[in-house]
Amino acid sequence: MIELIHLQKKYQNVTPLKDVNAKINNGDVISIIGPSGSGKSTLLRCINMLERPTGGQILLDGVDITASKYDITQARRRMGMVFQSFNLFGHLTVIENLMVPPMDILKKSRQEAYETGVALLKRVGLAGRELLYPEQLSGGLKQRVAIARTLAMDPDVILLDEPTSALDPTMIGEVQAVIRDLTNTGKTMMIVTHEMQFARAVCNRVFYIDQGGIYEEGPPEQVFDDPKLERTRQFIRRLKVLEVTFGNPDFDYPGITAEIDRYCQTNVIPARLKYRIRLAFEELVQQLLRDILVKISINMMVEYSEKEQTATVTVRYGGDRFDPSVGDNELSYNLLKASAQELEYTYDPEAEECNEVRVLFRE
Ligand SMILES: Nc1ncnc2c1ncn2[C@@H]1O[C@H](COP(=O)(O)OP(=O)(O)O)[C@@H](O)[C@H]1O
Ligand SMILES: [Mg+2]
To answer: Taking the model in full, what pTM does it have?
Structure first.
């Protein structure tokens, strides 16, 4: 069991962790979520003592691993870390990446390290790739090697820091499947991930990190569906609903496309629906409402329902009444209409954003 007691980490200019308290039981699989910069990575790095906390204690089975006389290599042997950026040894082959740490640190024989390595590569679906170098592998395969390398040390605790966020969307699923497989081994795991469906499937607890500590925690159903505190609610809502305001016709197109992609990834939205959400953005906001955008800002909201397998794109704007179906860009309108299940324009003179276009897509 790991116990965090008044854990604090201060840097020169910021104190991401002010007072973190938690009891992590053996076999817990914990999803760590929270705003960017809230200290999620710092927390994982403190737990395995890659960074020294500036206050508080970490008890590993009752022993304070932050104590100055404690030999931290003991704790590190029991904890493995998987990074967003893989951190493989580029000059070593795949199998050597798996063999070196157990030989160096656990003093395993070359033969034993080799046999374990081969078996682990098989387990993560990489049999036969032993002699390749990391640079010859895709991101998804590299991350599977990194997971196998962590397992080669046979840790009791595995810490994963956004393990799929640097991956091409097509590879996320297979890396998630490998992590999912690990959760069946009964190892304690802490995973920084905003992929809610995945977290629901594999985790028994969720920690929402904010304001220097574990701001709210609970089982995934509770934190994701019924958070108790306002900040958690707002954060979860932002995960579930994408909201963008366009204020200028020369808006940041790649930035918005990236946000749509990130939203689709967080919610594991099927590729076809994602394509349609992008289509709505391109045809509706960029084409049909282009002239409106010169004068006023437009608000776009995307909401995905996993249960219904639908995505709703709602666009609102003020100004005069303007129904995009009566504009002169028939091509864009017809494209949109053809791919949508429902396409509806409403005008409410009472509302500040009196125009509303709602598009519903079905998978
Ligand atoms: N080595 C460091 N030195 C100084 N500041 C750091 C260092 N690492 C992280 N920080 C700061 O600590 C805060 C938390 O960072 P981080 O743990 O990476 O957040 P998260 O993983 O939640 O996005 C940020 O403000 C970041 O700039
Ligand atoms: Mg981080």
So the answer is: 0.88
